[in-house]
Automatic annotation (TrEMBL):
Name of the featured protein: Sphingosine kinase 1
Lineage, uppermost ranks: Eukaryota, Metazoa, Chordata, Craniata, Vertebrata
TM annotation in the entry: none
Cross-referenced SUPFAM superfamilies: NAD kinase/diacylglycerol kinase-like
InterPro entries found in the cross-reference section: Lipid_Phosphate_FormReg, NAD/diacylglycerol_kinase_sf
Amino acid sequence: MGDWSDRHQQVTGTKLLTNCAFILCKGHPTPLDIVSITTASQQRIFSFLSLAWGFISDVDIESEKYRFMGYARFSVGTFVRLTALRTYRGRLSYLVSEEKDSASNIPEASNFGNRPSSDGVEPQVLEDSLLVPLDQPVPSHWHTIEDQFVLVLALYQSHLGAEYFTAPMVKGPAGGNIHLFYATSRISRTSLIKLFMAMEKGTHLDQEIPHLTHIPVAAFRIEPSENAGIMTVDGEVIECSPVQGQIHRGLGNVISIGQNA
């Protein structure tokens, strides 16, 4: 398998189904990081891409009305939201990761499920060993910030979208970390514009953007002070309430599109 960065260009002039068939034939399964997310209502969600609260999820969901514009809807949605910038008070807690991002040395995905294995042994239960129940304080060795936030994003893959190279340090689908980004209310509109323009090429972390923070973490918790704002998991809306998650490295599988596959 070639490097994750060695990607095939989309098959020119073909429909989505043909393009997907091409990728399936050319690629092969490779481990994928999965994040186990728990909500205040005890819903458990297995996420492969991101959790967002604030500006990014607001733009994503509110720009649905501009879907007829194609990908330009996000630019329009960003402009609209910048003109009436929202902030959200809450508490953000996280456990700093000790892992380096790497596409190698990821263990083969475990086989978790509800069905007994062929030898009759009950399947292993996937436990979130880094997390405590949401009604309990986070462990004392976690870091906690209470502030007014413009955006909070937990991302596990290199791209947030086709045009957003948000985590350029991620070298494969099993990079090993949750990349936590957050911006407080002290960030300016100019800085936000600079952030999203630079994000198209993945150069935003090389620039000085005040009040934007990036931290690789193994687990996180978001506790909104009010049920305000839009919260999404993998682009789908969930209840805006306390939520937490931890990474399970190499748990899933994805079809690789490396050139040497």
